[in-house]
Structure formats: structure tokens, C-alpha cells
Design brief:
This protein is of the alpha/beta class. The protein is 46% helix and 16% strand. Bound molecules: octanoyl-coenzyme A (CO8).
Length: 256
């Protein structure tokens, strides 16, 4: 049985489900490998405009697999080259939406933070509990979390391992949208569907500039934005979008 299931529930939208219910979807090597492989392939699939990543009602993912790491040494961890698999997820060029129910702990919280949009169930649970097993976050939990919620909330989470609920995550800025648990996947698919109808080159530029700009000075980031904005005026979709507005009709985007 595959540990990551790929479905195409809607035109233009791919859905990836982590499928290790017996281990609360803990991220073992196989899950990480399959996630990276799927997203690398989906990046190239022209018909796919956005992807949703989810787990099940109990767990999005309860962290990296502790049983896989318990006996490892530093060199073992280096040789696993896990960062290359995480990088494949981070470099997915299309919008990635995490639909989070249940535990998003440790590597699971870090995985959710690799997404562009996080939809959380009210009772979801986000945590960086690594400190409780003698380590620290290793896939962005000290960095992406701080960028999302600020130093003081991130320190509190990483140093105590305390969890926050989906509702709290929404207030803190760790979730883009919070909905009743039963509606999480539908809400995420709905967002993906909306994005999949948008002009793809504009979508791609927005994601790229927004992410790159986070790590640049404001002047550099604004220049990146300006250049990408200007570039879009060379696309057919810009002409189509504006002409359709003027003619009071729906635009038909080609991704060109
Ligand atoms: N790793 C391995 N197995 C796990 C994990 C995990 N992270 N989480 C749960 N499981 C397993 C349990 O061992 C149990 O297996 P078994 O039935 O064989 O005993 C099964 O899943 C069900 O779990 P529980 O019985 O514990 O279920 P509960 O509902 O009682 O509790 C919890 C659920 C609260 C989520 C609990 O399982 C728990 O605390 N899990 C560990 C959470 C954790 O500490 N996560 C952080 C791990 S460290 C990490 O993520 C580092 C990331 C660094 C990224 C870089 C990676 C290389």
C-alpha cells in the first residue's frame, strides 16, 4: 500500500494524502520520498494548477518517525540527506495548500509550513514538540514558524513543546483559514479550485516573488515584484484578462 496517495478530485487540482494511520502519519523515509517524487512530477504536469496536501481526521502528520531516528548518529542523519527531499517540496512551483486536521506536530508542523496556504480544522493541533524528545526542530520549525508568527510565539512553542489549536493557529497567523473539522478538505479543495482557474503565469509569479521577497531587503523585494509585474504584460493572459473585463465577459486563460 502506498504511503502517499495521489488523487485528482477536481479538474486542475491534485490531492496528496499521507497514508500511515497506524503511526499517526509519522514521516518516515518512504513518506518523505514519495511526497518529494509526487510533487516533482506534479510540477511538470501541465493539467495540474494547484495541489492539496492532507492526512486524515486524526493526524496531518505527528512528526518525523521517532522510531527511525532513535538510534541514529549525526553522520547517519547527514547521510540520509533529508534536506534534499524537503527541498523538493519547498521548490514545488505551484500553489500548495495544506489541509490540516488532528496532529501537525514536529516535522508535520514543518511540512504544513512548506505549504503556501494552511487550512486548519478548529481542533487541529500544531506543535514543535522536538524538545520533549531531546532534539530541536530540523526542517524549518525555528525559521518558518518565526517568520509566520513572530519570535515570541515561536520561542514559546519551540522551547516548551506546547501545542496550539487550529483556532489559536488562525489567530497567530499560522493558519490562513480555520473551519469546522469536517469541512477542512472541502475548504482546501475549494481554494485550490479557485486558484486553478486563475492565469497560471500570474499565479507562478506571485508565489515566486512572495517567497523570494521574504528573504530579501524591502528594496530588493519591491524590485523583484516590479520586474515580475512588468513581465506579465508580455503574456497573452494579461491581454485576455483585461480585454474580458472591458468586454464584460469571463476570461479564458491559456497559461501563455
Ligand atoms: N514517530 C513514530 N511513531 C509515532 C509517532 C512519531 N512521530 N507519532 C505517533 N507514532 C505511533 C506511536 O508510536 C503508536 O505506535 P504503536 O501503536 O506501535 O505504539 C501510534 O503511532 C499511535 O500513537 P499513540 O498511541 O501515541 O497515539 P495517541 O493518540 O495516544 O498520541 C500523539 C498521539 C500525541 C501524536 C503521540 O503519538 C506523540 O506524542 N507522538 C510523537 C510526536 C512527536 O514528538 N513528534 C515530533 C517528532 S521529532 C520531529 O518531528 C523532528 C523533525 C525534524 C525534521 C527533520 C527530519 C529528518
Amino acid at each position: 500500500m502506498s504511503e502517499v496517495l495521489l488523487e485528482h478530485p477536481l479538474d486542475g487540482v491534485a490531492l496528496l494524502r499521507i497514508n500511515r494511520p497506524e503511526a499517526k502519519n509519522a514521516l518516515n523515509a518512504e513518506v518523505r520520498r514519495q511526497l518529494a517524487e509526487h510533487l516533482t512530477a506534479l510540477a511538470e504536469e501541465g493539467g495540474v494548477r494547484a495541489a492539496v496536501l492532507t492526512g486524515n481526521q486524526e493526524a496531518f502528520a505527528a512528526g518525523a518517525d521517532i522510531k527511525d531516528m532513535a538510534e541514529a548518529g549525526a553522520a547517519d542523519m547527514m547521510l540520509r540527506r533529508n534536506h534534499l527531499l524537503w527541498r523538493a517540496i519547498a521548490q514545488f512551483p505551484k500553489p500548495l495548500i495544506a489541509a490540516v486536521n488532528g496532529y501537525a506536530w514536529g516535522g508535520g508542523c514543518e511540512l504544513a509550513m512548506h505549504a503556501d496556504i494552511i487550512v486548519a480544522g478548529e481542533n487541529a493541533s500544531f506543535s514543535q514538540p522536538e524538545i520533549r524528545v531531546g532534539i530541536m526542530p530540523g526542517a524549518g520549525g525555528t525559521q518558518r514558524l518565526t517568520r509566520a508568527v513572530g519570535k515570541y510565539k515561536a520561542m514559546l512553542m519551540a522551547l516548551t513543546g506546547q501545542a496550539v489549536s487550529g483556532i489559536e493557529a488562525g489567530v497567530m497567523g499560522l493558519a490562513s483559514k480555520v473551519v469546522p473539522d469536517a469541512e477542512v478538505l472541502a475548504a482546501a479543495l475549494d481554494i485550490a479550485k479557485t486558484i486553478s482557474r486563475m492565469p497560471p503565469l500570474a499565479v507562478q509569479q506571485i508565489k515566486e516573488v512572495l517567497l523570494a521577497g521574504q528573504d530579501a531587503s524591502l528594496d530588493t523585494a519591491l524590485m523583484l515584484e516590479r520586474k515580475a509585474f512588468q513581465l506579465l504584460f508580455d503574456t497573452r493572459d494579461q491581454k485576455e484578462g483585461m480585454q474580458a473585463f472591458i468586454e464584460k465577459r469571463k476570461p479564458v486563460y491559456e497559461g501563455k
